[in-house]
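Histone deacetylase
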Amino acid sequence: MLAEPRHDESADASTARPRVDYFYDEGIGNYEYGRHHPMRPHRVRMTHHLVVNYGLYKQMNIFRPKPAAYGDLTTFHSDEYINFLRTVTPENMEEPNFRSVLERFNICDDCPIFDGLYEYCQAYTGGSIGGAARINQGCSDIVINWAGGLHHAKRGEASGFCYTNDIVLAILELLKVHARVLYIDIDIHHGDGVEEAFYLTNRVLTLSFHASHDTSGTSFFPRTGHINDTGGKAGKNYSVNFPMFAGVDDVAYESIFKPVIRKIMEKFQPSVVVFCCGADSLSGDRVGCWNLSIKGHAAVLEFVKTFNLPMLVLGGGGYSIRNVARCWCYETSRLLGTPIADQLPWHEFMDYYLPDYKLHVPVSNMRNENTPEQLEARLQKVLENLSQIECAPNVQMHHAPNALDPGADSEEDEEEAINADRRRARGRRPHMAEYFDDDETVADRMISGRMGLDSEDIGEMLSCGCVDECECRPPNPFVASLRANGR
């Protein structure tokens, strides 16, 4: 019997001093989706300025993320889609060869083409993959990448402001070392891209708390994440969805969050957690419809921290950017166990926090549309589903072969490996911790060789334990009608 994660909820969080790494690219705030687009990477820069001016940086290892390479991105995404992202620009997107695929790749007002798009994807994704590698190397207890958490992107298309799914790629990295990964998503939108990728495996449990309707009763983007969507095949009951109506407050949220987490820790027994801290679940978000305070948002993250598992903590949504920065800075402090003052320190973006310059802001007086009876009924249904899962067995991990080893592959083999849409799944390099040091060479980094994977591929490969290298031919691609056809 595997030992359950050690839970110490009674411990004073301020006394804990975990090893915390923090990934930040100073150029991330320069990317712009469009003048009136709600997604603003500038919020990550604002968060960073608060983190620095509160002095929190002194307690963390700060890293500039290594840009995700083409081979990293095509571990999950299709070659055709990544080739499109790295070559399309606002200037050439109307050319016939690009115009013909815009709709197929879901390029639209939500997911526009903007200057530096591919570099932006490389930056936020590189931080998440690099953070997962740090955890795999045993270098860190907690890794933070506020630029990450873009959970809607699919294998071959953009979705919901997300282009590459850094979360899926980070989880695939973690699965090289960890037999079971728990993914928790508190963004107000369902984490559909991550759920879909791991829908058929029992080695990743995806848990999403999200809005099912907005204040008008209209279905909430992305219109997925029904409570009865619980996974398929080997992954049955390993996809957990807890949809809620508008107006969720701190008390209601905590009342359903903690029992679900306790049950998952008991039954699934993960060895690592990936946490998407989307801040659009905060009160007053311009896109969201919930009523969580910053302290309430952070409280559930702190609760998971008490299980003393390695954690990769990512950003996500959040569109009232001053509150996003407040929230993520405060959550950084709670992960460190360091109290910070409510009065904001002076810094470059101080005017965003007029008129009172405070860290915490009051919630609204909006009505909670979720009755206690409704929440209890949903909680019991989720707990019942979780009681049926069996802990995924430990699997043998394989070390990725060094693709730069002289004589390892012939030129013909290498040419076949380059065209990922025609080759079998192959091992990709592990990220070496040394690349975080400025004086280290990266010449020995291994090049990637795996094709872009969909959930059917991932489910098959993880079921046999072959994360890094596998003799199994990936099965047929995942089809959109999976749920409709009984999975």
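thats it. Residues 78 and 356 are 48 Å apart (CA to CA). Confidence is low (pLDDT under 50) at residues 397-451, 465-487. bye
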